[in-house]
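Repro case for the chain-ordering regression, as requested:
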Amino acid sequence: MIRPEAKLSAQALAPNVPKKATRDGYGQGIVLAAERHPEIVVLSADVTESTRNLEFKKKFPERFIQVGVHEQFLAANAAGLALAGKMPFVNAYATFCPGRAWEQIRTNICINDVNVKIMGHHTGVSVGADGATHQATEDIALTRVLANMTVVVPCDAVEARKATLAVADRKGPCYVRLTREATPVFTTDETPFEIGKALTLREGHDVALVACGHLVHAALVAAEELAQEGIEAAVIDCHTVKPLDEDTVERAARECGAIVSIEEHQVIGGLGGAIAECLARHTPVPMEFIGVQDRYGESGSAAELLALCGLDKDAIKEAARKAIKRKN
Amino acid sequence: MTQIQDSKVRELAVVANKLRQHVIEMTAAAGSGHQGGPLGLAEIFAALYFHELKHDPRNPDWPERDRLLLSNGHACPILYAAMAEAGYFPVEELLTLRKLGSRLQGHPERTWLPGLESTSGPLGAGLAQAIGIAYAHRLDGKNSRTWCVTSDGEHDEGLHWEAVLAAGKYGLENLTCIVDRNGIQIDGRTEDVMPLSPLEEKYATFNWHVIPCDGNDLRKILDAFEGAKAMKGRPTVIVAHTVPGRGVSFMEDDYRWHSQVFKPGEAEAALEELRNAKL
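-- result from build under test --
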């Protein structure tokens, strides 16, 4: 049963659920955050419109910095701005930052421990027609391995707006993972959001679906359909991959006895890896991994590619049944 | 050009000599580390820390201070030596370089030692950060200058050229890049490994104000600093032609002394030569 405390939208599971990309939620959030934090500056690597920074640029022209197609510079330059007291939000496609700029993020931002916020755009295979080169499926792994880094993966545009405000309130390096495609908006302004605190959206005792990003919605739909088979699945919005909410994940493992991790990212090194690292130490239970299975995407529509890579409600349902079967 | 007194130049020459002795003592005690670059940079660091920089070693976080970033972090023995002599930490601590628990990490880490402006070592990233600092200072209307010391070898890095391009665009007159043009890197002469010449012309075409100078001549260094500060609307690069290993005859201009372990007697001989140098 969906928890009333999650304050999900009335249309959360309706066929006509409104859709919006998480990058649009960021675009709203950055303007609000900038009003509260005069030290915020926004850097763009020649992707201002597609990273939804036009509104910020219009409202705060002197705080907008166009760095050109310079992703390594983007990261290192942001470290310098932070050293002088600014709070830079850096914007590029995630294949290039954190991808190309990873060493600058490691050395200049994370070892240096400075207050830089990295917005990773166009993640996952749902980027679509651009193909594998522009579909970041490794960025959670790249960022969560870095000490001092916080990693947040919002589940919809509303949560992306809240995440943008939350990382502005949090000191130190943060990574926010954003997507291009319009996806269901199913949380509301009232839905609780706190970095490091996973939110249980649906109660269940047979299996826990622990998801991040827009696939949280697919997990909810899958859970509703599983209920018709007599399977009660818990659904957890694990928006913070690092620091992982170990209490919530362990409680879910204890109460359900089986876990399915769900993410639009490689199954190696992502949310599933983080959960497995946690559970193997304390509460080992059967676990299945929904994610990109050690391959690259290709050109196609978002829906086609999600289905191709097994990132949809049907794959989630199948994984849930399999995990339950492995109990005992 | 300002009048610089002979007594000031002599005083800085004595400091530079002392810094060189520290470099030898530190790397000998550590049993590793870099000597060639640091020895060649002694005059520049003496001029920065004991003449040019607006700073307060007792208050390293003073908001109005000038900023000095060492992009080629491996040259940190000269930075640590200058900071210790300036009073940031006790001179005796220099001998802890590269040892477990030391604040003097093998490559400088800002979070370990007050007075370090950034963490560095991986090459080519200093100028991009210095631009960030200078840009923020301009936004905030601050008068602080940002100085970034770079090596010529690190000009192989693509990131450095991204930064050179950006600084030209922003026209950061409050930024000075000093290139330690000593002509060596790990594998040999820079012009053999990856030719950089004509370096001055390259910067000029990227919209920088270029001042070439003899980087081991204090008077020329101080003149170059004045020239950088007088420039409006453009960042300045001081291409400082230095002799790596300067001050120790058997180390001078030999790329193998980029970083080398002293054989028995070598450190003592180097110190002897420095103590007896005619300044």
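Ordering looks correct now. Chain B touches chain A through 30 residues (CB under 8 Å).
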